[in-house]
Structure formats: C-alpha cells, structure tokens
Amino acid sequence: MRSRVFTFRERPITSSSRRRGPRNAPVVLDSRLRGNDGILLDRSILRAIFLLFLLGPGIAAAVDINVVGLTAGKAVVSIDGGKPRTLTIGQVTPEGVKLIAATSESAVFEVDGERRTLAVGQGAAVANTSATRGGDTVTLFADSRGHFTTIGVVNGVSLRFLVDTGATAVVLSSSDARRAGVNYLGGTRVFTQTANGVVPVYAVKLDSLRIGDVTLNNVDASVIEGEKLPIALLGMSFLNRMEMKRDGTTLTLIRRY
Fold first, then answer.
1. Which one of 47, 71, 110, 137 has the lowest number of neighbouring Cβ atoms within 10 Å?
2. Tens-level pLDDT at each residue, the chain (257 residues)
C-alpha cells in the first residue's frame, strides 16, 4: 500500500486558540501509513492514545453519579468517586447534579438538561457540557478548561466524545466499539506503534453517529485495539460534514450534507 500523509493539529479544539504552556506541545511522530505488513504512525490516531497524558483529568468532562441509597424524597449518592452525600428533591450539587425525584426504588437526576433514572447500585456518566439542540444544529459549550466535549450516540449507545479537529476520523477504543456493536474486527487492519508496543487499528464505518439532534450515517472511524482511551474523539470524518462556528465558549455545528 502506498504511504499517505495526514494533516495534524497540535491539540483538540478549545474555546481559545492561544497556546498555554508546554502541556499542549505537539508530540513529534512520523505520519506515514502503511498496510498490513507495516506500521501505522498516524499522528491523529496516536494523539488519542497520548490524550490522557497531554490533557490530564480535565478531558473526562462528565459527572459520574453512583446511587448508594434511596428513600422517599432523598437519594444518597457518590459523585465523581467522592464521599456519599444525601440530596433532597430540588437540590443541586456544585457539580451541577440536580435531584428531580426519588422513591425507595429509583431516583431521577438532571445534569445540564439531561435526565437519568437510576436505582440503588447503579451509576451513569452524564455530560456536564450543555448541548442546545434543534433540527440540523447542535451547540456545544466548553468546559472549565476550554475543551468541547459532548455525549454522542453510536448505533444507539451513548459514548463520551472530545471534539478534535486534529483527528482525521472519529476514533473509538475497542471497548467502546464493542459496546456500540461495531464489528471492527471485520474492518481493514493496520498497526500503530505506541509506548506499550505495536497495537492494531481497524478502519470501519459507523452506521450512525448522533450528536444532539444531528445524525450522520456511514461515518468513517478508527478503532484502537487494546488501549484504554479515556474518551472517544469526534474527528474530521464527522466534522467535515458540518459547518463549525465558534464564538468564545460555544461551538455550533450545522449539518452541511
């Protein structure tokens, strides 16, 4: 297979294009792509593997809610792994979690307009960045570090995404791909060199990817096998089909085709 060259942006899209210190310095890597008998050194794929180290815990950009106990009108919860606390109906935590309703069997929580119903022992990751929905448009709001994250739905399964214009395609971990029912092992296989050695990467097409009310079909994606990616990347295979308008801490995506 002939080598191909990919474009590369030094960091994920943020609410400010100004560089802030050495944390965001680019990782210098070869950008050539080879076939099954070679090594894939695609910067846009490798950046996903090193994302945890480059951006730290700020990329999570979601509130993890775990229900410890329930009574009528109250819920005992652990948020982001913290100590259990008791919430009453209508109470809002500093993390933005609001208790809407509670019985001895289940509770309804709301984060930025998104509601989840959980029973004792259940947990959920809910995006703490808002999304304004309407037709073919979705508006994302930056988190405290200026990163645009959102909850996307792949084949009906919710996954966390980081908007990254430096990624040539949507990037998923193999565990996320399995959750979404993506048969990535049937895709074209290449290899990438990581700090932990050579790992396979599979080129696939997602049947559907929805962000807000915007749904695209047949979206190109890459699935990285064996790496625990902290978050999926919303790359250019999705973003190229959108018009992007950034205004301070908001990013509006408008479907083009």
1. 71
2. 333 333 333 345 555 443 344 443 333 333 334 444 444 445 556 665 555 455 544 444 467 788 889 999 999 998 766 788 999 999 988 778 899 999 998 999 988 778 888 888 776 666 554 444 445 888 888 877 888 888 888 988 888 899 999 889 999 999 999 989 999 999 999 887 776 778 889 999 999 999 988 899 999 999 998 766 788 999 999 999 999 999 888 899 999 88
Distance of CA 245 to the CA centre of its chain: 20
Structure tokens at 77: 């919860």
Q: Which domains does the chain carry?
A: 22-60+130-255 (2.40.70.10), 62-127 (2.30.30)
If DSSP codes are grouped into helix, strand and coil, which group holds residue 47? helix
Tell me the β-bridge partners of 69: 76
Q: Report the C-alpha gap between 82 and 69 in whole angstroms.
A: 15
